[in-house]
Amino acid sequence: MGNGVMETILHRRSIRRFAERQIEEGALRQILQAGLYAPSAGGRQGVLFAVCQDREINGRLGRIKRANSRPRMATAASYVSREHPSIADDPRLKDTFYGAPTVITLFAPKNFLFATEDCALAAENMMLAADSLGIGSCYIGQGWTAFADPYGQEVLQKWGIRTDYYAVMQLLLGYPREGDSHPAPKPRQENRILRF
Length: 196
Description:
The chain contains five helices and four strands; from the N terminus they run H-H-E-H-E-H-E-H-E. It is α+β, with helices and mostly antiparallel strands. The protein has a four-stranded antiparallel beta sheet. The mean pLDDT is 92.
C-alpha cells in the first residue's frame, strides 16, 4: 500500500488481553500528543486526559464499572469478539479494563454539545498512534460508571477533576499478551457507501 497512515488504520484492532509490563514513557507521551492534536468542536480543546498506571486503582475502578454496567449478553450469533471477548461476551470477566496496565479516562464538560464526539476523536487518534507503536488499545464507553460509588468519587477528588466535567470514556493501553495473535479483521459489510 505504501501509506503508513492507511496501513495503521487497516491494522488496528481492539485488544482486551494485555501483557503485565507497563508501556514505555516515550510511547505514552506520543500517544497523548496524538490525543491533544485531535480535532475538537470549535477548536475548544476541552478534553482532559487522566492517565492512571496504578494497577490497584485501575483494577478497582474496572470492577466498579463492571458492577455498574448492564451489557446485553452475547449470543451465538451476536457477539463483540470471539478472539478477544468483551464483558458482554463473557460474564466471568469482572474487570471492565481487562487488566490493562494504563487506563486513560477522557473527561469533557458536562453541558457541552459535542463532548462525546471530542473524546471519541481524541481516542481514535490515540488508538492509531498506539497501534503504530506496537501497543494495543481498547475504547470503553460510558466512562462515568467507573466512578459511580464512594471510592470512584474519592478518586475524582484525588485526581482534581473539575466538577463541571464528567468521564466520557476510558482508553485502555498495553502490550498485547504474548502468544495472542492479532485479531483478524472482520469482513466489511457491503452496501454501506451510498453515492449520488
